[in-house]
């Protein structure tokens, strides 16, 4: 009896070029493209965070050229040396306790002391908080010059309002939002405060170094970028896996069909053998029955 060899399973690409799998591939590529774009966006954000800030912060410019009252401080204004002129508002001087003299460039945070913050009314009529210097802890406010003045210093962002005992007269942060509630007259106000580069007599100069220019790579955004690339690759892999499953399914179906055909052929051979044996036995019995008749 001859047996028929099983047909080989259909090739992967023979299945992949079918219309529905081509459509599925296009969809997977579109999804992967979206994920790749998101990954590129996250990567750009990560690299932007690592770009070194090369702006000039050490050449004094007029405060009004980089900042405006009632406006959020911009990155261009933050940490810059600026010049400003105006007049001191009498009676609005405030002591900020629990402070340090500042980093003089050595990396140390400085010595403990109290800062003195004054209220400057600029020539434009806007209010500006000015940290004019620091003194010994508990020394209070010395006799300070009054009237008009011209100042040069570093313009820095306001600190967050404190949650301490400010109602008892103890203040530890320079928060413009707190100071405007203490000053007698306020029209418009700058969002940051000025640290002057030369303290008046009776106070020491607060060290205000330039802002750090070294950039730092944002690892969180970099992780997200890698994650989006993995998602895009998984979309293409999912398409490949579905086509592979279809190939295996067709191979299993062909194997079952071959097995059914082989079983039917074996059954036919068995029936033929059974019929031949039955006929042979009948002929033998007939011959044996005829022999006694002949002898009689």
What does this protein look like?
The protein is an alpha+beta fold and 296 residues long. The protein folds into two domains: 12-51 and 215-246; 61-196, no CATH class. The protein has four helices and seven strands, in the order ααββββββαβα. The longest helix is centred in the last third of the chain and has 77 residues, at 219-295. The relative contact order is 0.17. Residues 282-287 and 289-296 have low confidence and may be disordered.
What secondary-structure arrangement, pairings included, does this model have?
Blueprint: H1 12-16, H2 19-49, E1 61-62, E2 80-88, E3 94-100, E4 112-122, E5 127-135, E6 148-157, H3 176-179, E7 189-196, H4 219-295
Parallel strand pairs: 1-2, 5-7
Antiparallel strand pairs: 2-4, 2-6, 3-4, 4-5, 6-7
Helix pairs in contact: 2-4
């Amino acid at each position: 009896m001859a047996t028929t060899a099983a047909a080989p399973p259909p090739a992967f690409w023979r299945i992949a070029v079918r219309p529905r799998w081509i459509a599925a591939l296009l969809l997977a590529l579109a999804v992967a493209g979206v994920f790749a774009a998101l990954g590129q966006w996250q990567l750009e954000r990560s690299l932007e965070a690592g770009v070194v800030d090369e702006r000039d912060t050490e050449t004094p410019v007029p405060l009004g050229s980089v900042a405006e009252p009632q406006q959020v401080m911009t990155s261009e204004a933050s940490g810059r040396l600026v010049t400003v002129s105006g007049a001191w508002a009498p009676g609005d001087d405030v002591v900020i306790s629990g402070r340090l003299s500042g980093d003089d460039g050595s990396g140390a945070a400085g010595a403990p002391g109290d800062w003195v913050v004054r209220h400057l009314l600029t020539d434009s009529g806007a209010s500006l908080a000015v940290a004019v210097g620091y003194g010994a802890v508990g020394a209070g406010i010395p006799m300070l010059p009054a009237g008009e003045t011209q100042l040069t210093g570093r313009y820095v962002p306001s600190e967050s309002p404190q949650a301490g005992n400010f109602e008892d007269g103890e203040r530890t942060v320079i928060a413009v939002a707190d100071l405007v509630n203490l000053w007698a007259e306020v029209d418009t106000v700058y969002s940051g405060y000025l640290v002057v580069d030369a303290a008046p007599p009776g106070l020491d100069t607060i060290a205000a170094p330039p802002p750090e220019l070294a950039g730092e790579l944002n690892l969180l955004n970099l992780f997200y970028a890698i994650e989006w690339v993995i998602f895009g690759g998984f979309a293409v892999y999912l398409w490949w896996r579905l086509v592979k499953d279809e190939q295996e399914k067709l191979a299993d179906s062909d194997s079952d069909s071959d097995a059914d055909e082989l079983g039917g052929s074996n059954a036919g051979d068995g029936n033929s053998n059974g019929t031949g044996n039955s006929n042979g036995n009948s002929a033998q019995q007939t011959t044996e029955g005829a022999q006694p008749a002949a002898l009689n």
